[in-house]
Amino acid sequence: MLLPVIPIWKKAPFIRLLIPLIAGIILEWYDLLSRYSIYFLSGICILLLLLALVLRGYVFYLHKWLFGIVLIMLIMLLGITITHFKNITRQQDWFGHFYKSGTAVVAVLSEPLSEKAKSYKARADVYGLIKGDSLFQTKGSIIMYIEKDSSLKARLGYGSTLVFKKELQPVRNPGNPGTFDYKRYCLFNGITHQVYLKGEEFTLNPVQTRSVYARLLQRSRNDLLKILKIYIPGKQEAGVAEALLIGYRDDLEGELLQAYANTGVIHVIAISGMHLAMIYGLLIVLLKPLQRKPRTRWISGLVVLSVLWLFTLLSGAGASILRSAVMFSFIVVGESMHRKVSVYHTLSASAFFLLCWNPFFLWDVGFQLSYAAVLSIVVFLRPVSRWVHTRHVMVNRVWNLVSVTLAAQILTTPLSVFHFHQVPNLFLISNLVIVPLSGFILYGEILLCLLSWLPVVAALAGKILSLLLRAMNDFIRFVNDIPFAVTDHIFISAFQTGLMYILIVAVAIWLTEAKKQMLIYALIVLLGFVLLRFVDMGYKQQQKKLIVYNVPRFSAVDFISGRNYHFAGDDTLLTDPSLYNFHVQPSRLLLRIDTANRLKNVETDQSFFFFHNRRILLLNSIGALPDLVQPLDVDIIILSKNVNVQIAGLLRLFRCRQFVFDASNPAWKIRQWKNDCDSLHLRGHSVQEEGAFILDL
Q1: pTM for this prediction
Q2: What contacts 244, CB < 8 A, 6 or more positions away?
């Protein structure tokens, strides 16, 4: 049999612990159980444990299922407890419980400054709050934006301690339909607030709060970046080299990053298990003499573990590489003890321990894709590799690489479509070239860093690496420019993603186990998937919406009828991929809007839009105000571009009860308009504070 069959937990007993742990995490995060229910479950566990202690011998053997129930409930409660206390807002010393406007904040930069268009950005830990003459230590993190000034960048770095009184702002979601849940992402990383500081709004404190180990690790990371920047010519080449070696992507251009994603090789520049596997393979070859002798085998294992975990920490310890580090740790320890562990057991055990350490990894895309890829390779590699077999060694080696790529795609494709809404059609061609090439480059970068003390040799190695990196980038661009390289604008729901996995499992069992009943199940699931899409398409065909998007410093309005739309606002949004993909595209994917069509039944007259018996005024210039003899009835007035008008003045021209202030206006002007609306008993909606304005017609 080519596929594992139930009961798989005999080979991987940790699966029996992993499932209730995940259940507990989900129950706690989505608040599906009340506190009283949790206390009740805890009481039941205690009673069952006492009962298990009373029932001994043969009686206990007959009722050993009680111990299984108790264990499942305890692991579920463990997941609930860990998730509760891992949430920074639930911790007693979180700074948010004590912070008030005007309180002095002591923040420590936990990463180097990254340069943005108009500011520097860095994460900072709130070390404490100053109350009077005393420092009250706290926990929690913020995002810090600092005025762009070269002198400031020279003074600030990892571990710098800043003291300021500027008011902290809560991290908010844009509130646009279908967009990435940025607030939840920040919360999962312990970040809840943000602040923008000018040079005169903070002072530097000489107190060092970082441990020697943390400073050494960060200094080592900076030294590696410095070596790559010095010896690898070319900004793009150096940017890819930094991402490939330690996962540093601040110097990577957005266009090139998107090209890697479109061609299905984003894993090359997103530190993952592939990088760790390459380093592990190199170490095994180099340390082979030590592995031959039982007395020195443990030294080999210790060196391998040390190097793997050092690389993991230097690369930022993301969810995907942590999974690989834990997995390889199990493998190395098992080999040192002359024991072979089932890969399913290793997978489930590593997932269990990682989720115990950080339950929010469950929502991490890298974590999900990493485990899906490894599981997919383990399950499907052998069946796929048997499709082709020849006597030619080179053909077999190429087919082995193809088999790994194809096997990995089987379980990762549904997740990729769900999260990224696209399928790279030429992933096989890209991986055949890029995976081995990136391996040579990775080994070359490691060699470059080791030989950096020899400037002549390092310079030569850097030039060779630059040529290889340029060739890799050029190949990626070539593949990306092929018209059918990617199928994008695909939207599926979480439920449809689940159906895709059920379909894959049913088809796999049908093909490998020759069970015709599974084919029937697969066809039923496929029919259900198609029907869901048709029903959703039919529902979207009837929709009529007005959406004012929350796009900082820009104006963006969609008039939607069925699957067609009319856009009003800044054309920059449609030509800038970074802005469009983050703020506007998710909404259009969610609402299944056909970007090839334009809405024809929207009538426009200067700044007026007539849409399904609604008169809407988009006012971005005082010159657009009409000269009216008497007030005109308007359903909605959208104020944009910091237009110099007063609400009371507009009421002399228009009879309107609903005002919308888009994100192209400054915050102080919006607050002024909101206050005017409140005093005049009018409805005022600020998309900056409340998210996108959505009106269903």
Answers
A1: 0.86
A2: 268, 269, 275, 438, 441, 442, 445
